[in-house]
Amino acid sequence: MTRSLLSVFICSAIASPLAYAAAPATTEPDSTTSPKGEDTLTVTAVADDFKAGGNTPVPAYLDGGVANGGRLGILGEQDAKNVPFNVISFTDKLIQDQQARSLADVLSNDASVQSGYGYGNFSEAFMIRGFALNGDDISYGGMYGVLPRQVVATNFADRVELFKGSNAFINGVSPSGSGVGGAINVEPKHAPSTPLTRVTMDYTSSSQIGTGIDVGRRFGDNDQWGVRVNALHREGDAAVDDEYRRTTLGSVGLDYRGDRFRSSLDLGYQKQVVGNGRPPVYVSPTLTKIPDAPSATLNYAQPWSNTHTENEFGMLKGEYDLTDHWTAYAGLGASHAHETGDYASPTITDVNGNGTVGRLSVPYFADRISTMAGLRGDFDTGFVSHKVNVGFSSVYVKTRTSYTMPKTADRGPFSLYDPQPINYPPTSFTGGHMDDPKVRNRSRSSGIAVSDTLGVLDDKVLLTLGARRQEVLTRGYTYEGVQSAAFDDTKVTPAYGLLVKPWEHVSLYANHIEALQPSDPAPSTAVNTGEVFPAITSKQNEVGAKFDFGTLGGSLALFEIKKPAAYTNSVTREYGLYGMQRNRGVELSVFGEPMYGVRLLGSAMWLKPELTDTNGGLNGGNDAIGVPNYQVVLGGEWDVPRVQNVTLTGKVIRTGSQYLNEANTQKLDAWTRLDLGVRYAMPMQEHTLTWRANLENVTNENYWASATGGYLTQGTPRQFKLSATYDF
Fold first, then answer.
1. pTM for the model
2. Between 709 and 198, where is the model more confident?
3. What are the structural domains of the chain?
């Protein structure tokens, strides 16, 4: 039902906007030539029209690469220097200039984020402040359950917004329950104030060719109607030997901006194919040393391994100004996902890289519906200002899946350094019906949140108080469709934060905020088999400082997040929430243009991810799995003097060591990656042709990039990207 509705929406919406957008513009094109000849970025949000709390994005900082703020769930879009939380956004300009293909590429600019593969497939998984965030739990315009869940192409994104910290009050509970350490939100593209017609052709080594178009127009007496159309097709061999990738996507963004009423409809389609994709690698728990990573380009995938994902999604939002001080809003989102794959992740059993490889074939279907509604306003009581929010949000998810796999004896031999193909392993075990999978999971998360931000001394002191009453309901089913598990719990999660502006350019802040996740029932090996526990509450405390001197901004934060962990007591055999993972860290970020023609974007995080209250003291004090103890990212741009229109770019990523197991006997070495690039804006009469060339992993380092999820993800090899973008 969800899929058919989305198909009708997409077909009907694309027809008329494409015809209109293809018409020649009657005004000057959006991309003009700057004094240095560079194309000027179209930015929808400008300082004059930004109003905190709504849907208008925070204005881009200086050159437009980042924005000092972003969406804070129920609190709406907020300038970072005015809220007691840590948030930053990466804009479409940064995405274009770095030729970022996915969210992982974009978020590699922030040291608080690490990325890897999802379980058994090629989805992107993230670690923020040392805690996992699944691809299912990335929001779109502040709504869960809309975007594709495995890999999100950046062509849909006007902004990629990163919230650092626990966020149950801000966003509610995510569909899969991850996101204890942070959240990612993608803002859709809408038509800018000036006409936009942009065509891009790109090349990615070893032989990927892509073509994309981005068209935006506004019309009406006051330009109140907007249309934005995006389309892309890219395919070819990747930099990893014999790996093939194909991406096809399209999106339409319609919006209306009236005096009191504003609305938007965003529709999208994405299809991705990966053939012979290099998989994650598992390591036997008996090994005490992880084999060195092989050649960066070596592919140890099986030639029959593949994955196909297809997604249709849509989102409708609207808001109405009841008065000059009160606004009501509502939104509805939906998506349908169809995924199939033959996966072959090897398991290494000795230090020489030998092991075995099998097969797991899985069809996966997901239907998701998301809703939101609320009221926000502001008023004064004497010398105290108030900014009030009352909101409701919910997300419903239904998944259908099945599997086939071989028995252990049919697994083939594997060598990490000399991989050989094996025959497609025969099926020995089956779960469900491959052609018609039954429902395996239904979940519904809904909550009501209220907040009040009180300000005194001309809002130089701001106190934010809030709470969310959250209900989480899940139902699990066997592969034959019989209910086998149930969870239903309601909890209230508070949040409070204080922000003080002692000086014009400096803000000091502190906050307490929590995360909420469903818990698993006690396993069959425990004496309390089947016992259901309350939702797991993780708690964060944070203090920090933010600065903005007009040409240079940044922040410093110290935080602690405590997440309960469950295990079966080795003495009593009782299962419960006895353990704890405690992450204590320091974050530093800086961005801006400290001197003319030199732009910086850098960050660092030092983290102690400690296991405490462990089972019988085993592994107590050790580091949690897949969390590096530090990461530093330093990026910059330099407009070359006396060479008009040329900009040199570079980025260095340094990631500390991390562990693959809780015993901390399997250790990944620290690694460093260097990226370099050049950009040339070529004036062509009244238009601009922008050339971008980027070389990632310049030194072609061989390294294990991540142990996220308890398995190894290898870093990408040296990769060359070239694009030509023409703005009509």
1. 0.93
2. 198
3. 60-727 (2.40.170.20)
